[in-house]
Design brief:
heterodimer, A: mainly alpha, 2 domains, two-stranded antiparallel sheet, 2 strands, about 70% helix, B: mainly alpha, globular
Chain lengths: ~150, ~500
């Protein structure tokens, strides 16, 4: 956890400094008062300052027994990968079918549910998304090769 | 008299068949969300928010309010039957509720929770009716400096109530404020932090962020930490739900006290329903003649926190409606909903949208009654829902979050943004950076920045404007005190450690 915290603190510090840098390119003040760069500049300073405090605390409490938090477990990585693939396939498959296939795959791989149950859930999900969001709420969900 | 006529007007709105249906739907969804570990009220409201684009705002807010207090009821079932709180607000219910279940009194525990919540909820609505309009009248005196002070105080209170990582809590707040600045600056018309991406010119929509940070992040966290408990094997019949005379005598004052504590804690921005239930439990233990019974299945230990969490979930609407300041993550998401529907909560809401305000307040009487009946007659159904595997639920969370994010601007870019915020939420949780301050700062960011800039414009750039106006001074002082509290705590702790080392 110590190393993860340290990396996290360093990332926050970098983020804060970037905010300071980019906000310094915006006008700090205007004719009527503070400009668009005023608040972000001070937010950046605040984030950086707090990050330094966090880093100091971490370095002071150096504890090597637990270096890192348990990173995403195998199931978590699988889930993330499935979501990314589903999103990539959305333009091709459309929202209803793409997300229905995702639901079935996630149920099968993560939950180890029977194929029939996964298949039925997928069909139900596709119909549900299409009718609830597409028809009832009139949301123009992208359609894919199936036309849904 | 004014309150009564307004309440009657409210009932004429909330008692329409459509609104009763939305109230019922909200209470039912809330109850289910409360029962299912791994999904909370803010997530449920966030995921359903995009579905309400086309709804009448009054019906939508009645449904969301039903979800909010329904969750407080639902979380009790898991706390009592499997010793796992469905919600953080029902943690204290586990202590004595589960012990009661082990002793064969699960029905009584669930019953006192439902009745206590109903009584406390009714007390809270009555107090809300008197308190919220008065607060709104008071807030009519607020100008930009007062609003800036108020937002500053809300952020400060988060560091007090935000747990043991105050610096990380401040970082989360500042990050939320920064995200709120992304997009076109409305005063100068200059794009900020858009980096040439046209989709960022309008800023990052709140719905996109909360769908990711609450919805997806919860999926990742829950996959890692599946909460599975064994349901106490006890058939709950209708007659088991009746309290004995002794149980009723023991719990009646606990309900009243819990309700009152919950009401006042709910009024504090960032106070929250979890804090209310903790305080009510501790207060009950302190006033009890037999504190040793607590933790062993004392019925007061169930009645007080349950009454408090429901009461706080209702009074939490006072700062939202009267000041436009949300007191909890769920009301923060609701504030985003108000903005989406083109309604600005605040003192003028009581004048401009009296039908919405009083429709909502009166619906809480109906919602609480619905939940009481649900919790008496539908317990077996909710126990059945408890057995739904999380692996099925998480698929649906991803579906709702994705469609919700898409709906905002009808583009897939937002869906990817939502995924990004889901991962951010997961990492923040792992590294113990609290998410709630980020969400609250995000939703209040525009108000905070605009009021700060307007104040400085009024004063010609002098910050003295925040100390020369009494109400602003009060808020700013409270904010400073709140930010200093962790420093004082730390200094005290260091002094004690030094003393101990010297001895």
């Amino acid at each position: 956890m110590w190393l993860a915290d340290l990396i996290g603190g360093a990332v926050v510090l970098l983020f804060g400094l970037s905010v300071v840098f980019f906000s310094s390119e915006l006008p700090y003040s205007s004719e009527f008062g503070p400009g668009p760069g005023f608040l972000p500049f001070w937010l950046g300073i605040g984030i950086s300052g707090c990050a330094v405090l966090v880093l100091m605390k971490i370095l002071k409490e150096r504890n090597k027994t637990e270096l890192f938090f348990k990173p995403l477990t195998r199931l978590g990585v699988q889930m993330l990968a499935m979501i990314v693939i589903a999103f990539l396939l959305l333009p091709l498959l459309g929202f209803s079918v793409g997300l229905a296939l995702f639901t079935a795959t996630a149920m099968r791989i993560i939950g180890k549910h029977p194929m029939l149950m996964c298949g039925l859930t997928a069909v139900g999900t596709a119909i549900g998304i299409h009718f609830v969001f597409g028809e009832w709420l009139s949301i123009p969900l992208p359609t894919g090769i199936v036309g849904w | 008299m004014d309150i009564l006529s307004n309440l009657m007007m409210g009932f004429s709105i909330s008692l329409t068949p459509t609104n009763i249906l939305y109230c019922l739907a909200g209470a039912f969804i809330g109850q289910i969300v409360g029962v299912l570990p791994g999904i909370g009220a803010p997530t449920a409201v966030a995921l359903l928010l995009p579905m309400t684009f086309t709804l009448n705002p009054t019906s939508a807010i009645i449904m969301f309010a039903g979800i909010y207090y329904g969750v407080a009821y639902g979380g009790t079932i898991t706390s009592v039957l499997i010793n796992i709180p469905g919600e953080s607000s029902t943690v204290m219910t586990c202590v004595d509720g589960y012990q009661m279940a082990l002793k064969g009194r699960a029905g009584a525990a669930l019953s006192v929770a439902a009745i206590g919540s109903w009584i406390a909820g009714t007390i809270s609505v009555a107090l809300l009716m008197a308190f919220a309009p008065a607060l709104a009248n008071f807030a009519l005196r607020f100008g930009p400096p007062e609003y800036f002070g108020l937002t500053l105080m809300s952020f400060g209170l988060l560091t007090v109530f935000g747990g043991d990582q105050p610096v990380k809590s401040v970082i989360s707040t500042l990050m939320g404020l920064f995200i709120a600045t992304i997009g076109l600056d409305v005063v100068a018309g200059i794009p900020r932090f858009a980096f040439g991406v046209p989709q960022l010119l309008g800023g990052i929509d709140f719905v996109v962020i909360i769908c990711g940070i609450f919805g997806l992040a919860e999926v990742f966290n829950s996959i890692e930490n599946p909460e599975e408990g064994e349901i106490v094997k006890q058939k709950i019949r209708l007659r088991d739900l009746f309290l004995t005379w002794d149980e009723w005598i023991a719990s009646r004052w606990a309900i009243i006290r819990g309700g009152i504590i919950g009401f006042f804690v709910g009024l504090i921005p960032a106070g929250g329903i979890t804090t209310a239930s903790f305080l009510a439990y501790l207060a009950e233990k302190r006033v009890s003649r037999h504190p040793e019974r607590f933790g062993q299945g004392a019925i007061e230990g169930v009645a007080a926190p349950e009454a408090a969490n429901n009461s706080a979930s209702i009074s939490g609407f006072a700062p939202l409606l009267a000041l436009g300041i949300p007191g909890s993550p769920t009301t923060a998401v609701m504030l985003a909903g108000f903005m989406m529907w083109g309604i600005r909560p605040g003192p003028l809401l009581f004048q401009n949208n009296a039908d919405l305000v009083w429709g909502l307040i009166s619906s809480k009487f109906i919602g609480n009654l619905i939940l009481l009946l649900m919790n008496i007659f539908l317990i077996p159904l909710f126990v059945m829902i408890l057995r739904v595997p999380y692996t099925i639920l998480m698929g649906f969370i991803v579906v709702f979050a994705s469609v919700g994010a898409f709906t905002v601007n009808n583009n897939v870019f937002d869906v990817w943004m939502m995924l990004g915020f889901g991962v951010l939420g997961y990492v923040m949780t792992k590294l113990k950076y609290p998410i709630v301050p980020l969400v609250l700062a995000l939703v209040l960011g525009r108000l905070a920045e605009n009021s700060l800039r307007q104040s400085l414009m009024l004063s010609g750039g002098s910050v003295a404007i925040f100390v020369t106006r009494p109400i602003a001074l009060l808020f700013v002082s409270a904010a400073i005190l709140a930010y200093l509290t962790p420093v004082i705590r730390w200094a005290r702790k260091s002094a004690q450690s030094a003393k101990a080392a010297a001895a």
